[in-house]
Amino acid sequence: MKQAALTFQRRYVANKKTRYYSNEYKLKKLSAITIETWYRAIICGRNQRESYKKLKHASVVIQARFRANRMRDKEYDEFRKQLCQFKSIVEDCNKGNGTKT
């Protein structure tokens, strides 16, 4: 009877320790998963930020080139207008003098 009581007590204590360490393991595992999730989120955020910076830089370059091209077109149109005005003035002067161009 005494041997049975000791065996019962040993098993009870072992079972209690097993549950304690099982719960402790689950808690540590959940903590590790939480830390890992946060770390992955931080890395993902950094990657998205770098991608955004590259995209922003590319769009700024495209806009700058588009605006420069538009300015060149305006300057060319202005030059053509001035050239036409100059031609008409020269033609008017030549008509008045009776000379041909």
Layout of SSEs?
Blueprint: H1 2-97
Please describe what this structure looks like.
This protein has 101 residues and is an all-alpha fold. Helices cover 95% and strands 0% of the residues. It is built from one helix and no strands.
Gyration radius, in Å: 43 Å
The gross shape turns out to be rod-shaped
Number of helices: 1
Termini separation comes to: 135 Å
Helical content band: over 70%
Please report the total strand number as a whole number.
0
Which structural class is indicated by helix and strand composition?
A: mainly alpha
User: Could you tell me the strand content as a percent range?
Assistant: under 5%
Low-confidence stretches: none
Global mean pLDDT? 90
Helix and strand succession? H
Largest sheet: none
Brief characterization of the structure:
This protein is mainly α and 101 residues long. It contains one helix and no strands.
Sum up the structure in keywords.
mainly alpha, 1 helix
